Amino acid sequence: MFDMMTITKAGASLCAALLFLLLGGWAAETLYHVGGKHYAGHDKHEAVQGYRIAVETGDAPAEEVVQVAFADVYATADAGAGERQWRQCSACHKLEAGANGTGPYLHGVVNRPKGVADGYAYSETLATMGGDWSPENIANFIANSREYAPGTKMNYNFRGSVEDKANLIAYMATFN
């Protein structure tokens, strides 16, 4: 059944397959490591891991970052652009008076006293906080609600820019 020619062909096929795999591995290695020798400087065995970036060393003064007051940004806010930001809030809040969702309704929230939305059970922190929801207070609250009012039920932090917050608050102010 098996003669010497069949065994020779099987051995040659095995050697050809091994040769094919070795050449394929070599070709793949060549594709991923293009360029010349990957050694740095004088030591032939030191491999280069990336590009060198020249960094200026010196005592150059850092650029001063100008902080703009929120009131100035809010004065130029665009309520139309704030409508796009409102979509994030609309999952929990409503802009209709008296229509509470997961969170209290926000109709008339700008400059409204804190913790007074009819029919909503506020956390103790917000119910006893006092003061009004000025645009600055709203901006601080939506930026980090847990820090502004520890124990609050709201666990969402607004990730937009200062301009986005101002636009959102200007949009909410149109419902006063």
Notes on the protein architecture:
This is Cytochrome c552. With 176 residues, this protein is mostly helical. The protein has a domain of 104 residues: Orthogonal Bundle (Cytochrome Bc1 Complex, Chain D, domain 2), CATH 1.10.760.10. Helices cover 44% and strands 0% of the residues. It has 7 helices and no strands. The longest helix has 29 residues. It is elongated.
Task: Report a brief summary of the structure.
The chain has 176 residues and is mainly alpha-helical.
Question: Helix segment count?
Answer: 7
The CATH class of the domain at 70-173: Mainly Alpha
Query: Could you report the average pLDDT, rounded to the nearest whole number?
Result: 85
Instruction: Round the Cα radius of gyration to an integer and report it.
Output: 33 Å
Described by strand count, sense and barrel closure, the largest sheet is: none
Provide the CATH architecture of the domain at 70-173: Orthogonal Bundle
Class computed from helices, strands and strand pairing: mainly alpha
End-to-end Cα distance? 96 Å
Approximate shape: elongated
- Overall strand count: 0
List keywords for this structure.
7 helices; single chain; mainly alpha; Cytochrome Bc1 Complex, Chain D, domain 2
Helices and strands in order:
Elements: H1 4-32, H2 70-75, H3 79-89, H4 124-129, H5 135-143, H6 145-148, H7 162-173
Helix pairs in contact: 3-7, 5-7
